[in-house]
Each structure stands twice: as structure tokens, then as C-alpha cells.
């Protein structure tokens, strides 16, 4: 009798554990940790909203490159400033060090590789790079292994040993969601006579599995420092070529000479960097990605809440009430220094717009993720619109055009307007084009009171 009561009690307990919702629909994550998206360092919050994209001043060039259209945009974070030389240098150094550790791991694997999990004994295949061990660049064994990373002797300046920047390649993978979403590529779940998936797309394309949409990219990350010369023939910009990216005097100047592909690779690396940290320290699996803004997001952020004004500061003029210029560009009849700078200037030198964003007009133009088409305003949707095209190497040049916004230090005032559209080719690097990143806003839990971390340098 006692045994019977004991077994009945066990059954009741197990039954109550499996029915914690008392029969109600409660979902599967009610006991999980609350979601938290930290405020990204150095970014400003841009609220969702609707505005007239392309509206502003008259189209004085009659280019018909934009037709005003009311659209709506989701909230996101955006870098307060353009990515600086110092910040982009961190990316270059990471690529350099990862290549060095890979080479050293082949010869000194115990020092530069993590071969197994210390807690579980699981053997990693392939092993992970050991980032806790500092690279001994002057070590006898290390110098012999890393010799191939340096310039050959006949290419060195004054016999100075320098890294061969032509070898700084970053390898990454990304998912082509646009190709995956195409109806012609949708996976067919039909089975053959043996019960195996046919692996054929609904419209005949051979799509074996999801790996068909995972793309591999290998790209050199070093900026084109010669852009200061080749962009302006017969112009003495040689000093900028030798010093701009490396000299500490330009640490907080916007990085230039970066192609659209390099900017995209930077965003992917930045996403990887923060996600690796959060997963190892905070137990968070992932956070929203960093990416380039669409041109709709860029214009919404640049306006700073002002609906039909021409410039980010809200007025129709390039000066304030005291006669001071509000951006770094080519004022008047080419008096470059009248606004306080000859070429680029330190980021955040001029006042921010209402949402805390600096230099949305002037200093350097900025890459967006959008492909350029004169008619894209007409055929894109009015909710988070974006026309994009993943151009291949053998595609026609017209398919490689990407939208740049904001105008630069070499542009007249017309190109500083928030509605003005320009384009450049995705594989070109210019001394007047930089970029900044955004991070989509996923939401907040009730009671969150985030603090703002700014990276303004003065």
C-alpha cells in the first residue's frame, strides 16, 4: 500500500512539472533570461519615423535623380562620427595579427593555438587562434616564420622592415538573403522514390541546401593611401599619401581610400568582434549586426527630425547667425580654408544635428549599402526601402554603382544637402569617401535605463 501511494505521488509530481502553464498557452521562453541590447559605444539612437525622402531644396541641376516620396524607417543606432583612421587601423591590425598567428600556429602550435577545451578535454579540429599570447615579433623562431609577411628587401624604404600590405586579406562569409528569398531559388521539399529530398528549386534551379546562399569573400583591407594623388592629377597631395593613415596626428580624422567592399567587410568584422565578446563574457549568444546604412536610413538620420530642410542643421544656409560655416566643404568660389579646413578635418569639429550625429554633411562623403538607380524611389516600397544589388566581378560597371551621401571637403554646397544623391563604383577608393555603421534597434525590456557612451575626442 505504501509503495502504491509513493508511485502515485511520483506521477503527480512529474505531471505537475510537465504542466507548469496550467494548461494555458505560455510560450517556451517564459523562464529564459530577459533580452538586453546594450547601447553600442559611440553610437546615437535614431528613432523610427516617417518623412519625405528626397524633399528639400530645388533640383538645380535638373538631374531628376530623386522624386520626393513619403517613407517610414525603423529605429536604429548610428555612429556619431565617420569611422576614423584609428578605428579602422584596429581592423587592419586584427587582420595582420590573425595572419601572423595562423603562420606561427603551424610551427609553434602550443603557444599560438588553442588545441582543446581545458574543461571538457574536447579536441578542436581545426584549432582556434590563441589571442591571449602576445606575438613576439622579435623572437628568433617568430622572425623566421613571419618573414613572408614583410616586404622583400628590394622593395623596402631605406632597408626598413615593413609589413607587406598586399597580403592583408580578410576572409569572411555572409548569407545572400536576397538570393535565398527569390521564388526561383526556394527549396523544394518534394522527395524522390527513395525518400530523399530532390534538392531542386521550385522553378528548376538546383538548390541542394542552404549552403548555396552562403558566400565567401576574401578582400584586402588596407586602404588606398595613393588616392590622394590619383584622384587629383597635377595636385600636390603627396604629403597626405605618406602620413594620413598612419601618423598619430590624423588618428581622429575620417578614414578614406576605403572601397565599398572594404567598408562592408569592416562591418562584418565589427559584428564578429562584439558577438565574440558578449558570448564569452556575458553569456549572450548574439547581438544585432553592424552594417552600412541604406540611403533611406542615412537621409532620415541626417535630417535630425527636420522634415523639409536642406541641411542637417535645419536651416537653408551653410552658415550660422554669426557667419561661421557649419560644415567642411568648398565654400564660395573655391576658398577651401574659409571653413577652417583645407582637406579633411578632425571628426566632430562642427556642431552635431538634433540627434547627436556629426559631419552628416561635409568632411567626407559616406558609403551606403544601396545600389544606385535614378528610378529607385519609384519602384521601392515605402517601408524601409532599399534597392540593392550584389554585383559580381564580371558584371557591367553600371551594376556596381553604390549610393554615397553627404558631400565632402571638395564639394560645393549643393552636394551637402541631405536629399542630394551621388554614386561611386563599389571597387573604387577615393580620398573623399568614408563611411559609418549602423546597428538595428531590436527593442528594450521594461525598466531599462541605458547610458550613452560617447567617443567624441574634444
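^ Assign residues to that structure.
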Amino acid at each position: 500500500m505504501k509503495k502504491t501511494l509513493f508511485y502515485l505521488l511520483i506521477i503527480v509530481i512529474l505531471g505537475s512539472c510537465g504542466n507548469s502553464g496550467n494548461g494555458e498557452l505560455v510560450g517556451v521562453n517564459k523562464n529564459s533570461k530577459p533580452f538586453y541590447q546594450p547601447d553600442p559605444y559611440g553610437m546615437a539612437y535614431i528613432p523610427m519615423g516617417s518623412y519625405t525622402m528626397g524633399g528639400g531644396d530645388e533640383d538645380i541641376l535638373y538631374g531628376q535623380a530623386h522624386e520626393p516620396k513619403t517613407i517610414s524607417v525603423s529605429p536604429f543606432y548610428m555612429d556619431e562620427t565617420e569611422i576614423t583612421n584609428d578605428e579602422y587601423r584596429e581592423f587592419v591590425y586584427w587582420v595582420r595579427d590573425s595572419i601572423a598567428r595562423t603562420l606561427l600556429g603551424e610551427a609553434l602550435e602550443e603557444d599560438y593555438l588553442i588545441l582543446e577545451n581545458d574543461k571538457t578535454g574536447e579536441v578542436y579540429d581545426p584549432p582556434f587562434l590563441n589571442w591571449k599570447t602576445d606575438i613576439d615579433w622579435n623572437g628568433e623562431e617568430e622572425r623566421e616564420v613571419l618573414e613572408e609577411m614583410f616586404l622583400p628587401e628590394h622593395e623596402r624604404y631605406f632597408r626598413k622592415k615593413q609589413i607587406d600590405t598586399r597580403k592583408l586579406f580578410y576572409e569572411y562569409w555572409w548569407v545572400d538573403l536576397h538570393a535565398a528569398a527569390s521564388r526561383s531559388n526556394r527549396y523544394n521539399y518534394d522527395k524522390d522514390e527513395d525518400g530523399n529530398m530532390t534538392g531542386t528549386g521550385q522553378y528548376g534551379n538546383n538548390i541542394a541546401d542552404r549552403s548555396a546562399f552562403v558566400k565567401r569573400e576574401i578582400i584586402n583591407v588596407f586602404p588606398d593611401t595613393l588616392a590622394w594623388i590619383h584622384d587629383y592629377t597635377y595636385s600636390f597631395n603627396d604629403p597626405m599619401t605618406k602620413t594620413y593613415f598612419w601618423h598619430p596626428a590624423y588618428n581622429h580624422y575620417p578614414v578614406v581610400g576605403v572601397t565599398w567592399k572594404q567598408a562592408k567587410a569592416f562591418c562584418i568584422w565589427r559584428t564578429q568582434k562584439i558577438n565574440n565578446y558578449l558570448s564569452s563574457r556575458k553569456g549572450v549568444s548574439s547581438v544585432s549586426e553592424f552594417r552600412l546604412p541604406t540611403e533611406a536610413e542615412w537621409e532620415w538620420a541626417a535630417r535630425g527630425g527636420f522634415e523639409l530642410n536642406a541641411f542637417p542643421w535645419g536651416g537653408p544656409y551653410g552658415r550660422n547667425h554669426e557667419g561661421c560655416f557649419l560644415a567642411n566643404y568648398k565654400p564660395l568660389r573655391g576658398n577651401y580654408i574659409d571653413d577652417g579646413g583645407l582637406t579633411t578635418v578632425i571628426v566632430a569639429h562642427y556642431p552635431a544635428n538634433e540627434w547627436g550625429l556629426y559631419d552628416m554633411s561635409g568632411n567626407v562623403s559616406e558609403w551606403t549599402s544601396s545600389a544606385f538607380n535614378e528610378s529607385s524611389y519609384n519602384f521601392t516600397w515605402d517601408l524601409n526601402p532599399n534597392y540593392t544589388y550584389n554585383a559580381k566581378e564580371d558584371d557591367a560597371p553600371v551594376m556596381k554603382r553604390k549610393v554615397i551621401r553627404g558631400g565632402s571637403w571638395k564639394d560645393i554646397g549643393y552636394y551637402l544637402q541631405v536629399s542630394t544623391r551621388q554614386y561611386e563604383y563599389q571597387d573604387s577608393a577615393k580620398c573623399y569617401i568614408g563611411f559609418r555603421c549602423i546597428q538595428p534597434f531590436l527593442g528594450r525590456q521594461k525598466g531599462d535605463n541605458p547610458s550613452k557612451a560617447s567617443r567624441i575626442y574634444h
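The chain has ten helices and 13 strands.
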